[in-house]
Automatic annotation (TrEMBL):
Alphabetized PROSITE patterns for the sequence: AA_TRANSFER_CLASS_3
Keywords per UniProt: Aminotransferase, Cytoplasm, Pyridoxal phosphate, Transferase
Native source organism of the sequence: Staphylococcus gallinarum
UniProt xrefs under InterPro entries: 4NH2But_aminotransferase_bac, Aminotrans_3, Aminotrans_3_PPA_site, Class-III_PLP-dep_AT, PyrdxlP-dep_Trfase, PyrdxlP-dep_Trfase_major, PyrdxlP-dep_Trfase_small
Cytoplasm recorded as keyword: yes
Official protein name in the record: (S)-3-amino-2-methylpropionate transaminase
One of the record's GO molecular function terms: transaminase activity
Cofactor: pyridoxal 5'-phosphate
Top EC class of this enzyme: transferase
Catalytic activity field: 4-aminobutanoate + 2-oxoglutarate = succinate semialdehyde + L-glutamate; (S)-3-amino-2-methylpropanoate + 2-oxoglutarate = 2-methyl-3-oxopropanoate + L-glutamate
Length: 437
């Protein structure tokens, strides 16, 4: 390691909160597409995309050029103080591109957690009820309410109580955990039955304001539910006056091969939370949904000083254009397919690769102990660390920490992809044992 690396590492250790995690301790200098260069001239292929924030890639030239021009106009008049066009146009665009042929409205905010908080506020105001249902293995953020809705105890909740009241976690299927004695269909039916039981055993549906569901669980390990399950959740909402909130913060904006993952399940949410890849790396989030629900909050009851920053809104408008122009939904499907093929090949050499899951370019593989079939968090960390040390930004996920997830920009070139996959393969070769021949 160079002197410069050691210098920044020392500053990081001395002045930056320990509670902030770092997957990689190099210092970024420039980035474009799916490549980041650090200040020492090292190159990294980016399979993390700032945790799913960069579906259009780093510094997309159209966005960068446009924002440089915008910067000269104004930085932040504050939408609560005076309106600006980009906020208005983005609210209109979100109404157009989200599923559901009904009148829609939006509020724009900053972070994913803030969007989820606001979706819950709106649902409570609309229904006059207090209870919130999220799902086991779900992730919705780190504020008090969203942390309470989140499932994984360490590192998200441990020592941070007391948690928000009236938050309940319902079962969510994971076919990778299905008992061998059941078919997929039987298993899904069983989880749907458990969901119905949950509303008898845990909370009465008449007291529930909203059910907040990730259409594919992100931090939970890219768990793809059966369509029948998602539709069962929606049906419970409809028959009990519960607001269905799709949390599309990680899944939205072409990641799964459709603009929003919920479209795979033929369900129209009442409200949707959006963020991450919405604005190509700018802090921006929103709640979009049925106008009558969104409008249950009175003027002044929702908002925030920086909410709906104009540069972020301009970036988002460009992102939505680029998704269509560059056919990112189609690209997501091809990219996901290519990564999946590669991982399937790798299973012939490494018996520590468990289930591989994919919806569009949301791809994940589990790392297991081949003898016991149990999740292997230690080996997962070793693979991820080795990849990071050799030029690949890679993330883990999963309630048991044994999932490697792929969130590469959808604009990644074949060269970048192949380089990244080769680094991953080399990381396996360094730390994982091969199949017995
Ligand atoms: C599904 C989902 N909801 C909410 C959040 C929270 O977003 P933020 O970290 O911007 O608060 C995340 C972040 O990973 C997420 O994946």
């Amino acid at each position: 390691m160079t002197e410069q690396f050691e210098y920044y590492k020392t500053i990081r250790e001395q002045y930056v909160a320990r509670g902030v995690g770092n997957g990689n301790l190099h210092v970024a200098d420039t980035a474009s597409g799916a490549t980041i260069k650090d200040i020492e001239g090292n190159t990294f292929i980016d399979f993390a995309g700032a945790i799913g924030t960069l579906n259009v890639g780093h510094t997309h030239p159209e966005i960068t050029k446009h924002l440089k021009e915008q910067l000269d106009k104004f930085i932040h008049p504050g939408f609560n103080v005076i309106m600006y066009e980009s906020y208005l146009k983005l609210a209109q665009k979100l109404a157009e591109i989200t599923p559901g042929n009904f009148a829609k409205k939006s509020i724009l905010l900053n972070s994913g957690a803030e969007a989820v908080e606001n979706a819950v506020k709106i649902a409570r105001k609309y229904t006059g009820r207090q209870a919130v249902v999220s799902f086991v293995r779900g992730f919705h953020g780190r504020t008090n309410l969203t942390m309470s809705m989140t499932s994984k105890v360490r590192p998200y909740k441990y020592g941070f109580g007391p948690f928000a009241p009236e938050v309940y976690q319902a079962p969510y299927p994971n076919v990778s955990e299905k008992p061998n004695t059941l078919s997929n269909a039987e298993y899904v039916d069983q989880v749907i039955q458990k969901l119905h039981d949950f509303f008898i055993e845990t909370v009465d549906p008449s007291e529930v304001a909203c059910i907040v569901m990730e259409p594919v669980q992100g931090e939970g390990g890219f768990i793809i539910p059966d369509r029948k399950f998602v539709q069962a959740v929606k049906a419970i909402c409809e028959s009990n006056g519960i607001v269905f909130v799709a949390d599309e913060i990680q899944t939205g904006f072409a990641r799964t091969g459709k603009t929003f993952a919920i479209e795979h399940f033929d369900v129209e949410p009442d409200l949707m939370t959006v963020s991450k890849s919405l604005a190509a790396g700018f802090p921006l989030s929103g709640v979009v949904g049925k106008a009558e629900i969104v409008d249950s909050a009175n003027p002044g009851e929702l908002g925030g000083t920086y909410a709906g920053n104009p540069l972020a809104c301009e970036a988002a408008l460009k992102v939505i254009e680029i998704i269509e122009k560059e056919q990112l939904n189609e690209k997501a499907e091809t990219l996901g397919h290519n990564i999946e093929q590669f991982l399937q090949e790798l299973t012939h050499t490494y018996d520590s690769i468990g289930p591989i899951r994919r919806l569009g370019a949301m791809v994940a593989m589990e790392i297991i102990n081949p003898e016991t079939g149990e999740p292997d968090k230690v080996l997962t960390s070793k693979i991820v660390k080795t990849a990071n040390e050799h030029g690949l930004l890679l993330l883990s996920a999963g309630i048991k920490g044994n999932v490697i997830r792929f969130l590469a920009p959808l604009v990644i070139t074949d060269d970048e992809l192949n380089t990244g996959l080769k680094i991953l393969q080399d990381a396996f070769a360094k730390v994982a044992s091969t199949q017995p021949s």
